[in-house]
Amino acid sequence: MLSNYRIPDLAIDEIDKKILSILHENSRLSYTDIGKQVDLSRVAVQTRINNLIEQGVIEKFTTVINPAKIGIHVSAFFNVDVEPKFLEKVAEQLEKEPAVTSLYHMTGPSKLHMHGIFTDNQEMERFLTEKLYALEGVVSVDCQILIRRYKSRMGMKL
Questions:
Q1: What pTM value is reported for the model?
Q2: Structural domains of the chain, ranges and CATH numbers in brackets
């Protein structure tokens, strides 16, 4: 539950937390259906959700797609060592790549952690050789291919 987390300076109560949990499970539910679960009117639920959006608690509503169902069969994680003076430039280039689903600057002055998805190993190899290794400042790349997904974080689970 979110009650284990401290959310500073936000007007968020137990009902908001419950609404967030419901939305996390199914963001397509109507305000009326959510209202039934939290014992509020449709208008009250809509107001609360709009407030959560305005406060930045809800960043966006999205669709989670199963990659294998659309022909994407390779999921890989990369640790990319970059010369410090090129870190921002490399990150800016990588974040533009459609295959890159997440990109983080990790501890250490020049370490990027990245997740990418590809239709097959050949597409991943082309990404590595033509795009990643070609970026100025990339020193080394460690790649790990996902074998099986047990749990995937899609937003914060309450």
A1: 0.72
A2: 2-54 (1.10.10.10), 67-145 (3.30.70.920)
